[in-house]
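G., before I forget:
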Amino acid sequence: MSNLVELVINGLSLGSIYALIALGFVVIFKATEVVNFAHGSMLMLGAYVIAATHGRIGFPAAVAAGLATAATVGLLIDRLLVSRLRRRSHTALAIVTIGVDIVLGAELARRVGTEVLNMGDPWLDHTWRVAGFTFPVSRLAAIAVALVLIVAFAALVRYTDWGVAMRAAAEDAEAASLMGIRLGRVSMVAWVVAGVLAAVAGLFLATFPSPGLSATASTTALRAFPAVVVGGMDSLSGAVVGGLVIGLAETLAAGYSEQLLFLGRGLGDVAPYAVMIAVLLWRPTGLFGTRELSRV
Amino acid sequence: MSDRLNRLMPKAGWVAAVIVLLALPLYVDGFWLSAGLVAMAAAVGAVGLTLLVGAAGQLSFAHAFFLAVGAYGYACFSGEPGAATLGLGLPPALGAALAIAVTGALGLAFSPVASRLRGIYLGVASLSLVFVGQHLLHNLTGVTGGFNGRDTPMFTLAGFDVTGSEPPVTVAGVPFGATERLWYLGLVALAGAGVIARNLLRGRTGRALRMVRDSEVAAAVLGVDVRRSKATAFVVSSMFAGAAGVLSALALDRVVPDYFGLLLSVEFLAMIVIGGLGSVGGAVTGAAFVTLLPIVLARYSGVLPLVADAGSGGVDAAVLARFCYGAAVVLVILIQPDGLAGLGRRLRARLGPAVPSLQEST
């Protein structure tokens, strides 16, 4: 039983990290209709900058640098590529981000190589013992930070001018633009926000209990895709729910791998994808996604 | 006179290309033939993917999975019975055909998901097949040999080794070993794939697919069964992938799970984008570019100034190749959406009179 409680908390913590990745992904999709396959590389870049600089400038400054770098890359992708490709098909836009991912991913994988980089975070491998349960402090920090960011993000979408503009653009880009909403600015902010969220997620994916930042981090980040799809690609609350579901599924499958051995080793790695297929068979646009209807 | 010349030119080009490809094993050494074989296998797969992504407009990452099914399927159907891994000992040609059929059947099994999902959802959902596939390949050790993979059974046709050297054959003083013989099998497969894909695209099916891509509603109004068309595209494309898997297994001599990862799917997407979405010739050219680039760079790494040795931590041939084709993908979408095929069409249009061409691209 104590095992289950610990697993659930760890699952929720992993899930909140996935939720951050998924939120960034969804906000880009809503604002610009781009499915950003370079999201994993943006996350990895942010984490890499933190890992590479914390020794010289200290952890807080390194985090700031990591967030800034990831946000800048998001901004560059938006300005240099996406803004030039408006009105092109979803597939063309998605493929451009795949191209970016190939280049960025290759360079990051080369730099990290076979090493496992230390993130220099203050939580180290400390654990918290509460009522007989043991929790890694870094995981609790992840939950706290994710919670703050999600609330801040929700406020951003709900109350700021940009949030209103973004929602209008997602509803009907043409009408929004006729009402004087600057779609370029909406898209720019979306990419910057997504970059920041991805970098934060990258930091927590590489802290304890994971050994550090290795070349496989971008594969881990890919598991946010099931989160996005489970929640529905155009739903912000869906991204959070999807992230938690996927995080729980992964942690539980890994935690009970002994009992589930008949399904093979490394079950935690595929559980997110299995959940995604199951949900898609049931609801083709995810749990909270808008069903696409076409009026003739 | 010049009119006639212009009509003959493309035909003459084809004949010349075929002669060169047929004669290549007489002049080129085994290293380049093996490289060419890998490229041919990739080309067969790329042609299949361009049907799905280019013509039907369905982004898919599942190609590596279907390639794996073809490769392992062949190894199972034609593998030696009684070995550590499952083998049914069927004749290789039958085994290859069955492997392709099984791949198609799996494509069909996934197509309820595929045909329900709108384009971009499918792209993300198809990621799952690659990872589930990796899990199965690593865990079903009795069938796949696990992490270390399994050997590809030899391909023989009526007592003639295609991937062996019995009975010995020597043409013009060149002994024809496994690589040379397999080269011709690859050529036949590539030609077959090209013809089938071309006919599909030019016929009723191709028109229906492009219609579905451009507007599902319009297609449905005109009597195209949208779900069925999407499912067809998915099944046909996975069968091409199965054939490509069999060929890669033969060309590589051994199948290992790690080869069929996400990177392979991404490479396939790069191939068809660089070649020009929806174009068969473009897919073949793109496949040659993406597969041969790292091999060429590695071969001449000593001469080329920018390329570091593999494993030195510098920019080695594999990384440089990924930079090149990643950048090529971005540039193609930005500047020349029809890819190399579109470039070729433009060149031809400038050189000769306007040839009415099939609208194949996005």
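Chain A has a mean pLDDT of 88. The CA atoms of residues 17 and 201 of chain A lie 5 Å apart.

More on Monday.
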